[in-house]
Design brief:
Order of helices and strands: EHHEHE
Number of helices: 3
Largest sheet: 3 strands, antiparallel
CATH topology of the domain at 31-93: Ribosomal Protein L30, Chain: A
CATH class of the domain at 31-93: Alpha Beta
Radius of gyration: 23 Å
Structural class: alpha+beta
CATH superfamily of the domain at 31-93: Ribosomal protein L7/L12, C-terminal domain/Adaptor protein ClpS
Helix content: 40-55%
Distance between the termini: 60 Å
Number of strands: 3
Strand content: 15-25%
Strand order of the largest sheet: 2-1-3
Amino acid sequence: MPGNTTLKPTTVTKPKVERPKLYKVLLVNDDYTPREFVTMVLKAVFRMSEEAGNRVMLTAHQMGLAVVVVCTRDIAETKAKEAIDLAKEAGFPLMFTTEPEE
């Protein structure tokens, strides 16, 4: 029969956009840096409230480690370095590390 055409659906393949891997910034507890200073750094560098900064500082104090923020690798590494530099300037061994989020 003329005019009887079957239309096949076309498959549109979208390129899969990889979301950037997220990284955790971790606060490492030490026995030298004053708690107030740690909270001040969390507020200054990570834009935390007094309450959030205190909570993160206490978690690190009790557990030895605390997640400060989860963000892209560039931001995580920049913030961690900024926080460490601030502590160094003040003469404290405060340490932040970054690692990929699972």
